[in-house]
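A reminder from the course coordinator: this example appears on the midterm review sheet, so study it carefully.

Given structure:
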């Protein structure tokens, strides 16, 4: 599965934002450079298959599976970056902060500011916001409930529980609680 790094698949508006961000000058430790001299794009657009690959990684690289929950990379509204030089992902927050502050000037949000993780991720500030704690918990529960329901041969009366709606998920949790309680007796 290939990783796409080109800016050409980004939406025209977001592509212009990224191009302008990369022209921005930042000063880090007394040295001024263009953002494009400090970082490079590691990924832009993603197929559903690529997103699913990240979703299935352990540890999980994404809480979005690319099918029931799309990534902004799939919608051409996000880029991932790394730094040039010896340290692709610097531990020194000053590097990240300078680049993120420059991005903000061009309407681009930083993943770390949004979620307190995912430093390489930058997305269009106008893109729909997903609260990862809530969505991640929902997706994790859906996966665990589905897997358990399938092993225990529990269905919703018509089909295996895949994929589940929120209502099905809560109904399944009730069924699972009854089933687990019966096992403990």
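Designed residues:
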């Amino acid at each position: 599965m290939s990783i796409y790094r080109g800016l050409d698949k980004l939406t025209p508006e977001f592509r212009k934002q990224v191009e302008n961000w990369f022209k921005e000058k930042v000063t880090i430790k007394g040295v001024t450079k263009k953002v494009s001299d400090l970082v490079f794009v590691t990924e832009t657009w993603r197929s559903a298959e690529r997103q699913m690959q990240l979703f299935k990684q352990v540890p999980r690289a994404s809480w979005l599976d690319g099918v029931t929950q799309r990534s902004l990379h799939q919608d051409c509204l996000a880029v991932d970056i790394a730094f040039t030089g010896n340290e692709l992902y610097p531990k020194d927050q000053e590097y990240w902060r300078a680049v993120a502050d420059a991005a903000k000037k061009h309407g681009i949000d930083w993943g770390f500011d949004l979620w307190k993780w995912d430093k390489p991720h930058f997305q269009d500030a106008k893109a729909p916001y997903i609260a990862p704690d809530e969505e991640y918990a929902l997706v994790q529960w859906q996966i665990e409930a589905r897997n358990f329901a399938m092993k225990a041969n529990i269905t919703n009366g018509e089909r295996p529980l895949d994929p589940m709606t929120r209502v099905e998920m809560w109904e399944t949790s009730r069924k699972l609680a009854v089933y687990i309680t019966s096992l403990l007796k």
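The beta strands are 25-28, 31-34, 39-43, 78-83, 108-110, 121-124. Residues 107 and 125 are 5 Å apart (CA to CA).
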